[in-house]
Amino acid sequence: MPVAKNQQSGFTIIELIVVIAIIAVLSGIVLLNINQYQTKARDARRISDLDNIRKALEMYRAANGYYPPSGCGYDCNGYFYSANSSWQTLENYLKPYISSLPKDPINNATAPWTDGNYSYAYGNVGRYTHANQYDLTAQLETANHQLSCKNKCTKYFYDTINWCSACGGSYSNQIYEASPNLN
């Protein structure tokens, strides 16, 4: 008479470890890609937001003959920032031209000129000395973005000094400047 073997079917511990390791690697790749897509999406939103703000600024100028003042008035180095209550003042100026003034998706710091500081800034408005200029600035997260200061070597509108450190300036290489007539 044949003897029945007592076999159990299932996975060995080695097989389970291999499957878990494969799942972990695939999950890591998926999470990395999701993070990269989110970063790129936030940068695209920043560029779009500043374009919309720029359009509202142009409508304001067409109606008034000049841009809204900065935080200190005209022809001075003052700003409104999306990360604090001063942004509301700029929104009040632009209310007829844009329903709500957008804020940076992260909006974690006042001035966007330093690495890791994500906000929008409007200011340094000319009226008497540089009537056609202002700064409208954000910081991008994507390293080496084609529109970043590092790749465009953005300069101040009133002289030839570069903004970002890659081009000889002192500010973040990730700055995105949406101001008119730069470079």
Structural account:
With 183 residues, the chain is α+β, with helices and mostly antiparallel strands. It has one domain. Helices cover 36% and strands 8% of the residues. The protein has three helices and four strands, in the order H-E-H-E-E-H-E. It has a four-stranded antiparallel beta sheet with strand order 1-2-3-4. The termini are far apart. The model has no long low-confidence stretch (mean pLDDT 88).
Key terms for this structure?
36% helix, four-stranded antiparallel β-sheet, 183 residues
Report the biggest beta sheet as strand number plus sense, adding barrel if it closes. Answer: 4 strands, antiparallel
Low-confidence stretches: none
Q: What is Rg?
A: 26 Å
Distance between the termini: 94 Å
Write down the overall mean pLDDT: 88
Number-wise, the strands total 4
Number of domains: 1
